[in-house]
Write a structure and sequence with these properties.
With about 170 residues, the chain is mainly β. The protein has an eight-stranded antiparallel barrel. The longest helix has 16 residues.
Length: about 170
């Protein structure tokens, strides 16, 4: 199921990305690892989609970002960005069940899938190479989510590294 959704995401992004001049597609490694697609317009505003895998499940995250160039001549293609977004998907976890028979407790575990929805914040650095059509990113993306293993959960340690190929460079 994960591979089918990944292929659908990849094909739809490639079709959409062929229309844009400032779009990039690549991989993100970190707390949420998977495929990433980003479109940046002329006003340095961006939309990033991440189809990622985490905790035995899958999430689709959408984040609206604002880019600010770091005005240093030696590093002309370095940008700082921040943004807000949301995610939806599912997680997998083991649910513990107990049963008492003749005064002896027996434990069993069952795999449970649960939907999750949540909100994301991101801040990061992106460098766009001039001579090759790639960019690299380092970001910090804390999030909170509802449902899943707990009714409410926050994760402050989703740090990721992305490598993307610029489409229609």
């Amino acid at each position: 199921m994960k591979s089918i959704l990944s292929i659908i995401f990849l094909l739809s992004v490639l079709i959409l990305g062929a229309q844009d001049k400032n779009s990039s597609l690549g991989l993100r490694g970190g707390g949420l690892s998977g495929m990433t697609y980003k479109f940046v317009d002329q006003d340095f505003k961006a939309v990033e989609l991440i189809l990622g895998y985490q905790k035995g499940g899958m999430r689709l995250t959408g984040i609206v970002q604002k880019f600010t160039p770091v005005g240093v001549h030696r590093i002309a293609n370095l940008f700082v960005y921040s943004g807000l977004g949301a995610h939806a998907g599912y997680v997998q976890f083991d649910e513990r069940k107990t049963k008492t028979v003749d005064g002896i407790e027996y434990y069993s575990y069952q795999k449970v899938y649960s939907p999750v929805v949540g909100a994301d914040i991101v801040i990061g650095l992106e460098y766009q190479f001039e001579s090759v059509p790639f960019n690299i990113c380092l970001d910090y993306k804390p999030y909170m989510e509802f449902f899943g293993e707990k009714l409410f959960r926050m994760d402050f340690w989703d740090i990721g590294f992305s490598l993307r190929y610029r489409i229609n460079n």
